[in-house]
């Protein structure tokens, strides 16, 4: 059940027809995985945190560089030279301390794909490389998990919702 504080925080989305308290509770009890929390995945993760997702699994390898700061909104100057994932987790936890943030300082690969996808209800692929995106797609289809494939090239955006057995997948 939602508390009075929950109702105050999520008042606007509770008023969305067809969403209401039941939708908010479902969101709070859900886990979203976001692969690559940079220029595209960062805003996705922040929007999920703002909406009240219960748990976020963040997957991104590498340390923060200066050229990341102008486009990666979850990052901070004090994180330069440190794993991006730490800055992202710190920002998201400060923004919404009610969510659980699980971090993986690695990118999707053949060794971790099955276990990462198995822990999520919904996967957001924000990876820039097709090998990684196809791997996530293949694993989501295998596990019957919905995936939102998001990509940017220059200033062009692409979003493809994939629901196994109902919509085409990235490999289709």
Note down, in words, how this protein is organized.
This protein has 172 residues and is an alpha/beta fold. The chain contains seven helices and six strands, in the order H-H-H-E-H-E-H-E-H-E-H-E-E. A six-stranded mixed beta sheet has the order 3-2-1-4-5-6, sandwiched between helices. The longest helix has 14 residues, at 130-143.
Task: List the SSEs and their pairings.
Elements: H1 4-9, H2 11-14, H3 20-28, E1 31-35, H4 41-51, E2 55-59, H5 84-95, E3 100-104, H6 113-118, E4 122-125, H7 130-143, E5 147-153, E6 156-162
Summarize the structure in short:
With 172 residues, the protein is an alpha/beta fold.
Give the H and E element order.
HHHEHEHEHEHEE
Give, in spatial order, the strands making up the sheet with the most strands: 3-2-1-4-5-6
Global Rg: 16 Å
Q: How is the main sheet built?
A: 6 strands, mixed
- Low-pLDDT sequence parts: none
Tell me the structural class. alpha/beta
First-last Cα distance:
41 Å
Q: How many beta-strand elements? A: 6
Query: What is the averaged pLDDT score?
Result: 95
In DSSP terms (H or I, runs of 4 or more residues), the helix count works out at 7
